[in-house]
């Protein structure tokens, strides 16, 4: 399930992409599919990094780019200034108390004129999750903040970027998480949760036109994630 649309940043051969907080590598793999693109993943979870390595190793047999994954903190990235053409940070900032320091690091390692893509849970769907379940956001490593669009825009602009596009994604997924919060956010055995998860898995695998249309209708209303595309070098 991809949140970032790499076609919007004009990904092409010769570019270097950083996914800061890459998890198991969904966006790394998506960027790596473009021939000649080099990708770098950073995350603190060793298990997720191992999964990402496995995927990229298999893909590396059929593509021309290079890849590396590193155990690193988004707030202290081990890369020189201006190292990347595109920097992605997807569903990470909501976990951090020091979001200002993290965004400064993302912008530091981005080339002037490069694209920064940041995604976080959208305010309304996330606020409903918090209202339905205190345990959802109080567990260790969970979400510590909910962003309003204006706050996120200001955060990126103060770091030296200008947002040029905003999108909302995963409208079909918001009700799933509301169900999870209603029955216990770790309770995946509830019949309603199992049924909805099967529907989402079917949709991801099949991509039927009807659900694509429904998702497009729901995204502006209850899209689970907000996605900001920004350029470095504008204040």
Would you kindly provide a written description of the structure presented here, covering whatever features stand out?
The chain is of the alpha/beta class. The chain has one domain (6-123, 136-171, 220-232): 3-Layer(aba) Sandwich (Rossmann fold). Helix content is 41%, strand content 22%. The chain is built from nine helices and seven strands. The chain has helices at 26-32, 46-59, 99-108, 123-132, 134-138, 149-158, 174-183, 191-206, 209-222; strands spanning 16-20, 38-43, 67-71, 84-90, 110-121, 161-169, 225-232. The protein has a seven-stranded mixed β-sheet with strand order 3-2-1-4-5-7-6, with helices on both faces. Helix 7 packs antiparallel against helix 8. The model has no long low-confidence stretch (mean pLDDT 94).
Nutshell version of this structure?
The chain is an alpha/beta fold.
Overall outline = globular
The number of helical elements comes to 9
| The CATH top-level class label | Alpha Beta
- CA distance, first residue to last residue: 32 Å
Determine the fraction of residues in helical runs and give it as a percent range.
Answer: 40-55%
Number of strands: 7
Strand order of the largest sheet: 3-2-1-4-5-7-6
Order of helices and strands: EHEHEEHEHHHEHHHE
How does the major sheet shape up?
7 strands, mixed
Annotated CATH homologous superfamily: Vaccinia Virus protein VP39
The fraction of residues assigned to DSSP E strands is: 15-25%
Tally of discrete structural domains = 1
Rg calculated over all Cα atoms: 18 Å
Secondary-structure content class: alpha/beta
């Amino acid at each position: 399930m991809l949140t970032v649309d790499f076609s919007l940043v004009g990904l092409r051969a010769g570019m270097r992409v950083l996914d800061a907080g890459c998890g198991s590598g969904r966006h790394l793999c998506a960027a790596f599919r473009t021939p000649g693109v080099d990708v770098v993943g950073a995350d603190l979870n060793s298990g997720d990094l191992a999964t990402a390595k496995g995927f990229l190793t298999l893909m590396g047999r059929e593509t021309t780019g290079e890849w590396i994954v590193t155990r690193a903190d988004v707030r202290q990235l081990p890369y020189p200034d201006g190292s990347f053409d595109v920097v992605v940070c997807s569903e990470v900032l909501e976990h951090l108390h020091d979001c200002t320091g993290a965004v400064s690091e993302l912008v530091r390692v981005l080339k002037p004129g490069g694209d920064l893509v940041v995604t976080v849970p959208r305010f309304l769907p996330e606020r409903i999750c918090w209202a339905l379940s205190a345990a959802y956001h109080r567990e260790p490593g969970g979400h510590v903040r909910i962003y309003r669009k204006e706050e996120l825009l200001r955060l990126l602009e103060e770091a030296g970027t200008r947002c040029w596009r905003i999108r909302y994604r995963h409208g079909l997924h918001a009700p799933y998480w509301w169900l999870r919060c209603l029955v216990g956010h770790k309770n995946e055995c509830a019949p309603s949760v199992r049924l909805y998860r099967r529907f989402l898995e079917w949709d991801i695998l099949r991509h039927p036109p009807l659900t694509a249309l429904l998702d497009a209708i729901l995204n502006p209303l209850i899209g689970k994630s907000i996605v900001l595309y920004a350029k470095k070098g504008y204040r």
